[in-house]
Design brief:
Blueprint (H helix, E strand, L loop, with lengths): L12 H12 L8 E2 L11 H20 L16 H11 L6 H14 L4 H13 L11 H16 L8 E7 H15 L8 E6 L4 H4 L9 E6 L10 H4 L7 E7 L11 H13 L5 E5 L12 H4 L4 E6 L11 E7 L3 H7 L3 H10 L12 H8 L13 H15 L5 H21 L13 E5 H9 L1 H10 L2 H12 L1 E2 L1 E2 L9 E5 L5 H26 L1
Helix pairs in contact: 1-19, 2-5, 2-15, 5-15, 6-15, 7-14, 16-20, 17-18
């Protein structure tokens, strides 16, 4: 029975994915290959091993406080003597995986960061036990300094000290975005009918959220050019000069083109901010930055104007942990925009935040984010769970101490081997670009068709089938799930394949299957030309 592809036209790529999976898995005589989602199949094991050993130490510390009671009851950990007890624990368990890492982590915190070893251990022990509300609710004190140092080193290099930035620990990057959108709206920084510029292509929810009824924002597309290796042309970035554009959203490196913004684009945006739009707010999602060579975030170029979002999910293989942070410079223009709101808006916000402070006008944007994340009234119970923050710290220390870059180099090599296998079997060369990250790859129907059988065939292919039809036929006939580029704002017929979630031989199999289908189309083309 023929499939009515038109009924799926308005589905987002991720909702469409479920239909493609259903079709691709409908046959029992083949293996479905789902390249439609970016959940990596690699993960960092050492900081996880350290987490579980640290948990055992923490339980012993708790039981020490209530040692007069029967087994199974513990108390609050004591800070006095905790460093000595931890050193003894490391010595007694030195042959176990993860223990040496914990010893190095303590040394790094104490000797390289200059933080109190006892205070660090006490925060980690109480945190992993989950025995107290997150205090401060925005982020635990030591955790903020350590995770903040990692994020800033990866995103901006040595341009900004950790003391320059406030961080808010969130339930992954998606929660961070939801909180930011909500607080911008609640504080009148974006209102219905305002213009929001979005760097396209982009993670599809960032297109969908501004258009929801509660936001009602007008989207201004900042289109990357595939002929420029998916960089933004100057003419597109010049749209940011429009004073009606309140905020610019982007993912950097991009999703799905998977390229980092080049220096020329960063410098042009910084120039526009400095000379034309000192009031422009910028929101950058830099989750893939740790896969790039010599990455530099917009937060490095325009720190006072930029809200930085980073998630630990992809680089550490931790999508299930839900670990993310929002970073805001302590000297930022958003706080200035809040102070400049009209009196009527100020009075409304005074009422909104009155349970938190007697001077709501002085409440920083990042602290409003925390309060709004718990409907203000529940601000006292806000914050990411403390065990999650401990794992975040261990991930951060793992990366900070990886002086040889072995982990990062290993992940990059894995991803790029997968890309090479896919394109080798497909029979075309992948694009070569120093700014490419390759976490995803965009399979361009026209480029691939032209590379295989020439311009005339490519033109015929574009007329022959829509991208939606192609993806359903691929799923039905080969069991391969790809996502349509159109749903991410790509203006050419393309499909997104994640290079992070399957094995190298499976990407080779995808390449062979797609080549076989292309050959079938070519036979049809030859018949039509006869």
């Amino acid at each position: 029975m023929a499939i009515d592809y038109a009924k799926f036209k308005n589905l987002s790529p991720f909702e469409l994915k479920d239909e493609l999976i259903r079709l691709a898995s409908s046959r029992t005589d083949r293996t479905m290959l789902n390249a439609g989602r970016g959940n990596p199949n690699f993960l960092a094991t050492l900081p996880r091993s350290a987490f579980f050993h640290l948990g055992q130490f923490a339980v012993a510390e708790s039981e020490l406080s209530f040692s007069y009671m029967t087994a199974g009851v513990g108390g609050q950990a004591r800070v006095d003597g905790i460093e000595e007890r931890f050193e003894r624990f490391l010595s007694e368990n030195r042959d176990k995986n993860g223990i040496f890492f914990l010893g190095r982590a303590l040394s790094y915190v104490r000797d390289q960061m200059g933080l109190s070893a006892s205070s660090f251990l006490h925060e980690m022990v109480e945190g992993i036990l989950g025995c107290n509300y997150p205090t401060p609710p925005r982020m635990l004190t030591m955790s903020e300094q350590i995770a903040g140092q990692y994020v800033l080193r990866e995103m901006v290099g040595s341009a900004l000290p950790v003391e320059s930035t406030d961080f808010f620990a969130t339930e992954g990057g998606t929660a961070a975005m939801a909180y930011i959108f909500n607080t911008l709206k609640q504080n009148g920084l974006v209102k219905k009918g305002d213009k929001v510029a979005i760097g396209l292509p982009v993670f599809s929810p960032y297109i969908e959220i501004p258009q929801l009824e509660e936001y009602g924002l007008e989207v201004v597309s900042i289109n990357a050019d595939p002929e420029m290796n998916w960089q933004y042309p100057a003419a597109e970035l010049e749209k940011l000069k429009d004073p009606a554009v309140k905020i610019f959203f982007c993912v950097n490196p991009s999703n799905p083109p998977s390229v980092k913004m080049d220096d020329a684009s960063l410098e042009l945006i910084a120039s526009i901010v400095k000379n034309d739009r000192p009031d422009l707010m910028i929101l950058t999602d830099d989750v893939y930055g740790t896969f790039a060579d010599d990455f530099r975030s917009l937060y490095a170029a325009c720190p006072a104007n930029t809200i930085l979002v980073y998630s630990f999910s992809k680089y550490f293989g931790a999508t299930g942990w839900r670990l993310g942070v929002i970073g805001v410079h302590k000297d930022n223009i958003i706080d200035g925009l809040l102070r400049a709101l009209p009196d009527s808006a100020q009075k409304a916000l005074e009422r909104r935040y009155s349970s938190l402070t007697t001077d709501a006008s002085a409440l920083k944007f990042i602290d409003r984010l925390v309060a709004d994340s718990r409907a203000v009234a529940l601000n006292h119970t806000a914050g990411l769970s403390t065990p999650q923050q401990v794992q975040m710290v261990l991930f951060a220390l793992f990366a900070l101490m990886d002086e040889t870059g072995h982990y990062k180099a290993s992940l990059k090599a894995v991803i790029r081997r997968r890309e090479a296998a896919l394109y080798r079997e497909l029979g075309v060369k992948p694009s070569e670009d120093a700014n490419a990250v390759d976490y995803y790859t965009l399979l361009d129907l026209e480029t691939i068709s032209r590379g295989l059988y020439g311009k005339k065939f490519a033109k015929w292919m574009l007329k022959r089938a829509s991208t939606g039809e192609m993806l359903f036929r691929i799923a039905d006939e080969t069991g391969i799930v790809l996502l349509p580029g159109e749903g991410f704002g790509v203006q050419k017929p393309t499909a997104r394949a994640s290079l992070a979630n399957l094995s190298e031989y499976q990407y080779a199999a995808i390449g062979r299957s797609l080549r076989s289908m292309a050959d079938e189309y070519y036979k049809e083309f030859l018949k039509s030309e006869a």
